[in-house]
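User: Run a structure prediction on this.
Assistant: Running it now.
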Amino acid sequence: MIDRDTVEHVARLARLALTEEERERFAEQLGRILEYADRLSALPLDDVPPTSHALPMTNVLRDDAVAPSLPRDEVLAQAPARRDGFFVVPRVFDEG
């Protein structure tokens, strides 16, 4: 079972503000998800090969090839903040 402190910790990492009702509800829901995962891990799957998809898939992405792009100065001109040729973004976590 997941406790409310764990839910609060995960919410803080995701930068979510939860109400007390949401903490209780998510603790219950996440607990049920983990219980179900435990049930799945108990299945006899030793003879089942690992898969990432139930159906065969092919790579639908293009080849990774070098191509011309926009000039750096033109792109950085659109940035609200920049320093030394890079975008400056707000810090997400104040912790080290």
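The chain has a mean pLDDT of 89.
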